[in-house]
């Protein structure tokens, strides 16, 4: 199936770059807005930890199923329509997540929320590949930096509104208004077309696309480890008080965001291959330091170095996908996005199994070895 090419003479410019940044912000903002709602949903539905863990898989399932479909739809109907529909799904889901009190409704709503996030995340990366290529310069790290900024703003903003005494529904209403305002600003300049490449609706990634996808899986696995296990590690292994355990992920997220916002300049000066090699080395050293350090202060430094190292690897890999010719980018971009999400979803669970069988320290050291593998593999990527 071929893309609609009535807009082929059009070349994306600054307005399309702006709309891409806004769409990345929406993706990060919408996802993070859900995090402060989790305890409320757990209490309303009377869920135990095990049931909550299974419930949260519905979000990932919705995202992973939506990603390859969104690539096909973006090619046929254009990025703009898919991004608008995906954003509307997010806006419809969030108020339900703030009020739902039964398990079946939460399952259905989280699946819809995940589908909206998956559609937006996959399609905005496809648009980013097209816009960056048209610009002739490195822009991907800056795009992904807006996702990180959105994540910080969403989590902090909703938490602040809840702390001020607003109900979850009113806090989420403010989020929805902001998302819709951002969408109204971006929509006129979202790409009305998708990739001009053709291919089947679904295809198993192979060749360099599979190679890139595996590297994305590892980096996202490290990110998932930071999100789900850094606090546990600091409290159980480094004797840090529970009230301060979130500092590990905060250190990682801060350096990740700053690194991405500065990333386009870094990539231009160092080159894409060096960014992958040095990033993998920094991340591996940081993970090893956080794991083996004698005190929690050095562990925080290690987590910060993991953020520095990981910050620009995935954006560079997305740029590489836009340059390969093994698979159509309308299939390749959703494929590596899906593999990345699989790393976030499956990785923390695997870490839990390893920690149960041996120790959390061993699990983190295995991630260190995988990050070293990313650094070694970086020399083979054509960017």
Which properties best describe this structure?
15 helices; Growth Hormone, Chain: A; MFS_trans_sf; Fucose permease; disordered N terminus; 383 residues; transmembrane transporter activity; mainly alpha; transmembrane; globular; membrane
| Count of alpha/pi helices | 15
Question: What integer value in Å does the Rg equal?
Answer: 20 Å
Query: CATH homologous superfamily name of the largest domain?
Result: MFS general substrate transporter like domains
For the largest beta-sheet, the strand count, sense and barrel status come to:
none
- How confident overall, as mean pLDDT? 88
How far from one another are the termini? 27 Å
Return the CATH topology of the largest domain: Growth Hormone, Chain: A
Percent helix? over 70%
Total count of domains: 2
* Total strand segments: 0
CATH class of the largest domain: Mainly Alpha
N-to-C series of helices and strands: HHHHHHHHHHHHHHH
- What is the level-2 CATH architecture name of the largest domain? Up-down Bundle
Structural class: mainly alpha
Strand residue percentage:
under 5%
Description:
The chain is mainly alpha-helical and 383 residues long. It has 2 domains: 14-189, Up-down Bundle (Growth Hormone, Chain: A), CATH 1.20.1250.20; 207-380, Up-down Bundle (Growth Hormone, Chain: A). It is built from 15 helices and no strands. It has helices at 14-34, 38-45, 49-77, 79-99, 103-135, 140-163, 168-186, 207-237, 247-261, 263-270, 272-292, 296-310, 313-323, 329-357, 360-377. The longest helix has 33 residues, at 103-135. The chain is globular, with a radius of gyration of 20 Å. The two termini are 27 Å apart.
